[in-house]
Amino acid sequence: MNKVFITTLIWGILTCHSVLPAQTKSHPGQGVPQYTVTGLPVLSLKQFKKLRAQGDVVVLDTRSADDFLKGFIPGAINIGFKGPFDTFLAEVIPNRNQKLLLVIEQGNHTAVGERLIQLGYTAAIGVLDGGMGRWKERESVDSVVNLSVQKFGERSDAGHIVDVRTEKEFDKGHIDNAMNIPLSDFANFGNTLEKDGTQLYVHCQSGYRSAVAVSILRAKGFKNVCNIQGGYKALKDEIKEN
User: Fold this and answer.
1) Comparing C-alpha atoms, which of 133, 138, 120, 106 is closest to residue 36?
2) What is the Cα–Cα distance from 132 to 135, expressed in whole angstroms?
3) Which entry of 34, 57, 147, 155 is 20 to 30 Å from 96 by CA?
4) Could you give the C-alpha distances from 113 to 60, 126, 161, 212, in angstroms and in order?
5) Distance from first CA to last CA of the chain, Å, rounded?
């Protein structure tokens, strides 16, 4: 057996789906999802929307932070596949039985599906066929301003600078007036902030964690949120550090 077939077989057993041959497709009009070579169902927009409406499903967007911030499905959580994916997936979504709907960059379906199996996430229920491009064709999207450090330096409006790095990183150096809310405390992340309309400027060390943080805050109902592009690495060169 080759590696791809073995992966398909394992996925089918773990998720209790019948294992379909690679590249099997549904018949038009029957509403049955087609399957990728990893056994991960590929869902039409209609199927994806129906499953998303369930209260126990998390939409996981594995695209890069920059792509995510430009436009994403409202309520989606961003954990970029090209980065410390394993670490943050385990921390943000510790329940490996959590039902997941996936938004994946074209060409990464197999890699993401196989990685989820390896990490023990066996309840992924499908990936959106056509990705965000398909969603944007017919549905509304959310987005977050990805503010350059130069533009941030020009801002004079009142707001909170939210540094989501660890306490240890924060103590080594931080921006004046920044508040430290470590993203590592995912269970309580954002609970110390009030939804009072105050602008939030979020950053981490380089940009990966802040995109995760921003997606969580948006999913929790925070509207006035900006991501500071390049994170503390970029900020410390532009703004006097504490």
Assistant:
1) 106
2) 5
3) 34
4) 12, 10, 36, 20
5) 59
What is the token pair recorded at 26? 């549904």
Give per-residue pLDDT as tens, 24-57: 333 334 454 444 445 689 999 999 999 999 989 9
Instruction: Measure the CA–CA gap between 154 and 144, rounded to whole angstroms.
Output: 18
Q: What is the pLDDT of residue 197?
A: 87
Q: 211, 183 in Cβ contact below 8 A? A: no
Confidence (pLDDT) at 189: 80
Tell me the whole-structure pTM to 2 decimals: 0.81
Q: What does the buried/exposed string (b/e) look like for 12-41 if buried means 16 or more CB atoms within 10 Å of the residue's CB?
A: beebeeebbeeeeebeeeeeebebbbbbbb
pLDDT of 231 = 94
Residue 153 has pLDDT above 50, yes or no: yes
Which ranges of 139-207 does DSSP label H, i.e. alpha helix? 149-154, 167-172
